[in-house]
Design a protein that fits this description.
By secondary structure, this protein is an alpha+beta fold. It has helices at 2-12, 43-46, 56-65, 159-174, 191-202, 218-225; strands spanning 26-28, 39-41, 80-81, 89-91, 100-103, 112-117, 120-125, 131-139, 143-151, 181-182, 208-210.
């Protein structure tokens, strides 16, 4: 049992040693799902897990990052380009955002901070301050779009999953949509591990996971651009 606990701490970075008994996660079929594809309902795990760190240094770093404005981010360079599909666009509501934080984790159960710097959007891990993804933006009167994207060398995902993660993080963290997140292919067929990995990756905002590519999904586009822009 102790070996199993240490294993999950090593693999998932921050799930509490003694989580309470939780109902089993389950797959929703494409007919049950509000997204038109089969999704794993991760909420029984992700909404009942507590993120902890055994490192006082990491806990202190998280606290320091709550007031960081991301001034040094524009100095970072990444060489791994992520292919960007032409439909990565989002409503701008008539104005561009000023440089600075656009989303900050309010608790350790939220795993990401997002910053705008010099026309680029930076996706930063809230515990460590490590930048995982960068997106070059183009602003218009009614919308903004991603024109280029990169991932850091320490990101183990392939670039297809990275662009899905970027799109998910924008929809879930900036627009507060209950958008499905990309699941880890390595845990396919192991639903509990998928849900635990989802919490490690995306924290409390990991509600539904999928192996499908939902960039440009009609259901999500309707919520993003229409009157259904809610967290339900």
């Amino acid at each position: 049992m102790h070996r199993l606990r240490r294993f999950w701490h090593a693999v998932l970075h921050g799930v509490s040693d003694d989580p309470p008994p939780q109902p089993a996660v389950r797959w929703l079929s494409d007919s049950e799902s509000p997204f038109g594809v089969s999704v794993l309902d991760c909420r029984p795990v992700t909404q009942n897990s507590v993120a902890v760190s055994e490192s006082a240094e990491i806990a202190a770093r998280f606290g320091q990052l709550r007031t960081w404005l991301g001034e040094e981010l524009s100095e970072q360079q990444f060489s791994i380009e992520v292919p960007v599909p032409g439909r990565l666009r989002y409503p701008s509501y008539g104005k561009a955002q000023p440089d600075g934080p656009v989303f900050k984790a309010s608790a350790m159960e939220e795993k990401w901070d997002l910053y705008l710097r010099g026309g680029r959007l930076y996706f930063v891990r809230s515990w460590t301050g490590e930048t995982y993804y960068v997106a070059q933006l183009s602003w218009g009167l009614d919308e903004w779009a991603i024109t280029q994207a990169w991932q850091a060398e320490n990101v183990q995902d392939d670039t297809q999953r990275s662009i899905q993660a970027i799109d998910y993080l924008i929809k879930s963290h900036l627009y507060n949509l209950a958008a499905p997140h990309p699941l880890r292919v390595a845990f396919r067929g192991e639903d509990e591990k998928l849900a635990l990995a989802s919490f490690a990756d995306f924290g409390w905002r990991a509600l539904y996971g999928t192996f499908d590519d939902l960039i440009g999904s009609a259901a999500l586009e309707k919520k993003l651009w229409g009157s259904e822009n809610t967290d339900s």
